[in-house]
Amino acid sequence: MDGNDSSDSAFTKNNNESGVSSSSSSPDKKRTRLAKVSSPIAVFSSGDDGIKQKNSPKSTEEKPSDEKEGTSAAFPSWVAGASPAKFIPLEDLIRMSDCIGKMNIAHKIATDQNCKVEDFEAADPLYVSVKSNMRKAYWDLLREDLAKEPPEFGHAFSLLGDLKQMLADHLEGDHLKHSLNAVEEILDMDKLKSLADQRGGLNFEMVIKDVLDVVGRLCAPIRDEMVANLKKETNIVKLFDGVFSLVEMMEIDMTNFKISQNRQLIGSYSAQIEFEEFEKLMQIDESSSQNTKRWLGKILDDFLSSPDIKSCADGQKDGLTRAQVNELIANFYLALLTTNPTDSDRIPFPETLKLDEKLLDALNEKFLQLELTISAIFISANLVGRSVCEGNDFKSQLKRDLIVILNDVNWSNSTQKLNNVYVHCEHKCREAAAEKGWNEERGNALRRQLDGLCRTDDPIRVISRKRLCDFVGQALLRRSSPMRIPSGLSTIQTELASLTSQFYAITVHNWNGFGRFYGQLLDQFYESNWKITSPH
Q1: pTM for the whole structure
Q2: How many structural domains are present in the chain?
Q3: What CA–CA distance (Å, rounded) separates 346 from 456?
């Protein structure tokens, strides 16, 4: 909206009084400020030297002969290292931030079907309060102008001009050209001002309601009630307020409509966009893919150390096959799903999946829940016997209960949660196998085996994890083939399908964008490994 002239002039006046206007600054001061803004930012790693303060009195003192130029005054060179400071220009940081922002937007639209533009008011009460007070003050000013004798129409005409511009910005495209022409005809400012001069005033209510007729045909059905109420309104100030609010909502609705109409197209190109933006990041900062390389290197090392690969490695001088590369990439994704993210030995999260880190961590906990649930079911079912498992709904009921007990399990509280699992499993086993001779010996065995689930290398847990990974891995490698549920996992079929579908959506999107990059890295690592291990 217009009407900020007075505030602008006040701002200029305040600046002049405080001595910060452009006219009060000397050319030398300007150059100094510009130099500070454009200077690069020094980034120091653990091996970098300290920052030398050129203006400090100590900087003019003679340094000891045993201290090398550029080393820190706080640490000797053999502690701090003698590497020079690394400089990243401010412009590169801004470009990096812009790249990350574009990647995030494209990624959310492509992977989240519910992604849409929302009104900022819903998430920030402070914003609502400030905006409400500012709008009230503005509308009060308009009300006072219209109530004067004679009325002042300056703000009202300014608002009509703003409304015309807002609608012109939203009504783009050939299919909206007719509506745009109608708005321009209704809000012909020269014509309206001429009429106001001739008649000594203007029927603003009629003008706004003519605009509402056009806008009402363009709005989503959810706005029909608001349009109808505005058409009944006779207060000019409330009409202005309402029509501007309606146009703001229409902007959000039209944006979400465009997103929904083009979501498939966005999904087709977003993976490519993400990789292109990531390449820009790597050009700015070569270390931006360091963690990803470490993850893939570890996956390849584990692959090459397996007995089956060792036995045929001598004949595989030409490199990895396509099937092997795909298997390694799938193992890379599965490692993120199955390993403890709080483990100090775990490699930091790969940069290429940073946008999905929180969601993947949540799926990691969901996988842990299913792993512990099916392991506890295996142990309990084995101890109660075949007749109990086949004769009633023992495993299904136990699964439903354990899913609830382990609902908020994570790697930090898993031991505590397993105590609760034991209490419930012991009760259900005793109840189900009372007639089959459940005794203290079986109860102790149940306790001992469930306690073992605290360790990730527990045999039962290893079996459960492998079967879960086999199913999820098949989903990644056989994208269109029907898959068979591994033995023993039919009890958690629904939960496993939900986990797999969410994990699949993330990983396949990432694979489409970065799969070739992963493959190139794996080939490079394999070639380097071959040169090191092969005889010369």
Answers
A1: 0.65
A2: 3
A3: 14
